[in-house]
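Input structure tokens:
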């Protein structure tokens, strides 16, 4: 058969050549060893935490080598595409600080010399290379109907290999005249790859994460172009990764099974085969009703709210916290590095693809909370204020108004126990802040005046009455604490905690108990940041008012 004549018959409107696109998208001018990676999601739903993880790994791989990380939108499956899906992906990457060097930057805009970065806008490029494969005798038109394909599937019930190949490839050997006649009759057709694979032959490739992998060659005549002329993932990503000059494909390990097809396509098109790094899925422990671990499973879109990256923004995990946590999953040596470098930005970590686990990392929300508390503890009061206000503006308008009412007051509130060598690590996410700092605002302050079991109500009343007589907002911290200690002995308490531990029956309690009563009156809590700083910020009038109220409640 005259393959060039056939190619012209199938693609009469394609006039550009592969050489045209090779010139349009030349090799990148990058340093030796620089890696070009991409995140190539489909806008068929929300951005999954696994997708964010893969994009982080791909971005780090490029950045650490002085290369390029780009975003490509693979939207060839129009039936499953969701409205706003592209912007949701872009917003998710932006929120978590994953910088795109080039690629899709909005629903309609691209940045970079290898545009367009949206597959639905690259149809003529794919058809050019499809025409080339027909010219080389490596692709053919398939006119099989869905009913015929169903018959093939039924006939293969007992076959070890299922699909369109060998004796089942009914359209593979059609003559030019038969193809021409089918086209004249208006029969729909797909373009299939003419595989020369042999199930007895093996392909061997080295995966950066999984190591050496050996698989049988692909024998299936996979579809390259669907009936509407839009490419399948297999063909589109092959053309795109070549023309965009991708050096390392970082993706989920569910794609390992397709590697034989992909390598076959790269070679058939005359493209250099990129390196592969297949990431294991993020897993979650499965527990029974008793809380016992019964196994592991993939994070589920249906079962697990934390599977969606929007969850982290909604509950208020800072982007830095999520990134820091994902790095603990990416490289096992990250935590050691962090302990040795507590003040360095996470971007300085020497990430290495080869140190990723070949099995699925276990997602642990408890550990994320711990990581986040540590991250937030290092934020300045200004940064905490800005982050909390931004979160509240989206999720809690009432709290946002309280924060905006007196910005200086709110910043001082966040500054308490912040900074220094041992900052408090109480807050894991911004949704916790309103409750944690509720006693600073009359609108959110609540107090049930519940005393510790060892403190009688009458003793608490006496403590508050006597303290109210000596309290002054002008006292420095030493004078403030001295006045609390001075209350102890006349009221039957000891200012010395060690003395109380030696002879507990000789006292009603110690200075810590006295200060706890005052703390409860002022904040409604037994455990808070520095009480002296809290009282100074609330002011003398408010403090005395709260002392008086508790006295009245207990009397």
């Amino acid at each position: 058969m005259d393959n060039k004549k056939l190619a012209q018959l199938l693609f009469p409107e394609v006039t550009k050549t592969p050489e045209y696109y090779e010139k349009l998208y030349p090799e990148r001018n990058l340093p030796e060893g620089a890696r070009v990676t991409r995140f190539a999601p489909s806008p068929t739903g929300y951005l999954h935490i696994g997708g964010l993880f893969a994009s982080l790994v791909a971005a780090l791989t490029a950045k650490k080598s002085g290369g390029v990380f780009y975003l490509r939108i693979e939207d060839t499956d129009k039936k499953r595409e969701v409205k706003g899906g592209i912007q949701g992906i872009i917003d998710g990457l932006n929120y978590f600080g994953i910088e795109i060097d080039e690629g899709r930057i909005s629903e309609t805009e691209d940045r970079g010399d290898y545009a367009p970065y949206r597959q639905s806008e690259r149809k003529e490029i794919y058809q050019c290379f499809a025409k080339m494969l027909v010219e080389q005798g490596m692709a053919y038109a398939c006119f099989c109907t869905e009913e015929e394909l169903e018959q093939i599937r039924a006939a293969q019930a007992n076959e070890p290999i299922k699909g369109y190949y060998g004796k089942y490839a009914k359209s593979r050997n059609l003559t030019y005249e038969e193809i021409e006649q089918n086209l004249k009759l208006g029969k729909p057709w797909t373009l299939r790859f003419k595989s020369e694979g042999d199930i007895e032959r093996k392909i061997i490739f080295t995966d950066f994460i999984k190591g050496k992998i050996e698989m049988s060659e692909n024998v299936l005549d996979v579809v390259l172009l669907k009936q509407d002329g839009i490419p399948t993932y297999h063909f589109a990503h092959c053309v795109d990764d070549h023309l965009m000059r991708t050096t390392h494909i970082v993706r989920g390990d569910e794609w390992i099974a397709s590697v034989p097809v992909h390598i076959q396509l790269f070679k058939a098109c005359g493209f250099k085969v990129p390196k592969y790094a297949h990431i294991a899925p993020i897993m979650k422990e499965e527990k029974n009703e008793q809380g016992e671990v019964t196994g592991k499973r993939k994070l589920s879109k249906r079962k697990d709210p934390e599977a969606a990256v929007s969850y982290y923004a909604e509950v208020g995990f800072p982007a830095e916290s999520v990134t820091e946590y994902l790095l603990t999953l990416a490289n096992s040596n990250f935590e050691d590095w962090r302990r040795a470098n507590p003040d360095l930005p996470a971007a300085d970590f020497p990430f290495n693809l080869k140190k990723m686990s070949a099995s699925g990392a276990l997602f642990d929300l408890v550990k994320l909370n711990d990581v986040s508390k540590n991250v937030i503890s290092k934020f300045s009061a200004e940064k905490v204020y800005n982050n909390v206000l931004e979160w509240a503006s989206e999720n809690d308008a009432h709290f946002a108004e309280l924060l905006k009412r007196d910005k200086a007051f709110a910043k001082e509130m966040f500054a308490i126990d912040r900074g220094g060598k041992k900052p408090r690590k109480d807050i894991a996410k911004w949704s916790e802040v309103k409750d944690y700092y509720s006693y600073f605002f009359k609108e959110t302050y609540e107090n049930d005046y519940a005393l510790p079991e060892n403190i009688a109500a009458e003793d608490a009343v006496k403590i508050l009455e006597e303290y109210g007589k000596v309290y002054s907002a002008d006292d420095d911290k030493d004078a403030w604490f001295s006045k609390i200690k001075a209350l102890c002995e006349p009221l039957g308490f000891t200012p010395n905690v060690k003395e109380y531990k030696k002879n507990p029956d000789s006292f009603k309690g110690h200075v810590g108990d006295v200060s706890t009563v005052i703390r409860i009156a002022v904040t409604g809590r037994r455990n808070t940041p520095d009480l002296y700083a809290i009282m100074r910020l609330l002011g003398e009038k408010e403090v005395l008012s709260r002392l008086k109220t508790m006295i009245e409640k207990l009397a």
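Residues 17 and 487 are 92 Å apart (CA to CA). The domain at 457-554 is CATH 1.10.10.350 (Arc Repressor Mutant, subunit A).
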